[in-house]
Each structure stands twice: as structure tokens, then as C-alpha cells.
Amino acid sequence: MSFSKLFTSILAILCTTSLLTGCVTHNFVTKSSEFPGMYTEKPKSLLVMPPINLSTAADAKDYYSTTVEMPVAFHGYYTFPYQLTAEVLKEQGIYDSELVYDIPLNKFQEYFGADAVLFTKIVKWDTSYAVIASNLTVSIEAEIKSTKTSEVLWKYTGTVVVDLSGNSGGSGGLVGLLAKAIVTAINTASADYTTYAKQANQRFIYSVPYGPYHPDYLKDQQVKIIQQTTK
Fold first, then answer.
1. In angstroms, rounded to a whole number, what is the distance separating the alpha carbons of residues 116 and 68?
2. CA angle 162, 204, 156 (to 5 degrees)
3. Could you tell me the pTM of the whole model?
4. Tens digits of residue pLDDT in 19-35
């Protein structure tokens, strides 16, 4: 058997027998080829909109809104103070970002002087709990849209899955299961969603081309990231 056939056979076996992680192939592209609009429009200021909550957690929006503004600012963009943004939007009768997601965004240039708008969607913000096994999932979708054209300049998805099970070793049998169940319950009750939302944010913010207030501005065009868009 040739090396190529052997490699193909091994890969097929791994894909078939991998029950936990599956066999996933990622396409890697450069930032400039994936998000050319960010380099042609060169937005300097981003208006961070209140999150759109698609999850079943009523308080997810309040928690998540505290995790976005500063990381984006550190990435080299001017961001408008979130509380001020929320108040101005309420004065305009906009209480939910879904109301303006699909409409022309030129008004935000008028109201704030923003070059682009950052929309975030909370897709999942929940815990799967089964006594001795528990997973916490925070999944975020985000897009940057131009206030000039309303076109999507950048988009990404970040998901963090945390195992909250009580895998702390120790004895087996009934005593071990009981101990594991107790640890799982404690971990689940004390899980800090905000911490894991920040982790999801780190993934998507990494893919954003640096803004003009960052020393690597326009120097990251050949940086490789996982392909997000469908050409």
C-alpha cells in the first residue's frame, strides 16, 4: 500500500471513530481576502450596539453587554460609551438592536459620527445539566456593518463550551459518583458566564483587522484565520 493510500485509510478511520470531536476540516484564509471591506473603508470608530439575545437566558444581554466595548477599543478602534449609546437609542425609540439590523445605517453616522456598527447576537447562553455531567455553552455571532453602505465588512462566530463535570478523580463506585455529582452541581451553580463570554469575544476580536489606533494597523493583512464567509 502506498503512503498516500495508507494516510487516507488512517484519516478515514479517525473520522469514523471520533465520537467526541468529529473530523472537522477548516479552511484558512488571510484577513485581507476574507474581509476586504475593512481595509478599503478603513473604519476608525465603531458603534457597539446592544446585544441581540437569541438565547433562553433573560439576563444574558445585561451580562454580555459589559464584555464587548473595551476589547474592541484595545484592538485599535474608537468606541462610543455603551451606556451613552443605549440612552441615545432609547430616546430614538430603539430598545432592541433587531429593529435596526436590516435597515440603512446612515442615521448612525448622523447621530454618532460612527464609521461602522458592531452587532452581536447571543445564540447560546445556557447550561446542559445531567447530575454528573454538565456543559456550559456561550455562543456569539458578530458583524460589523458600514454606516456608508450598510454592507457587512466583517463577521465571525465564537463559541466556548466548558465541561463543568466533577472530573476530580478519587474513588469509584457509588461514593465516587456522589462526589462527582456534588462537584458538578457546585460548578454549575457558580459558573461565571461573563468570563466565558470574554473568551468567546477573544476569538472573534482576534479576527478583526486592527484599527487605526493600534500599532499593527494595516500590517495584519496576511494573518491567517479560519474562513467564515461563503464566497
1. 15
2. 105
3. 0.75
4. 334 445 668 899 999 99
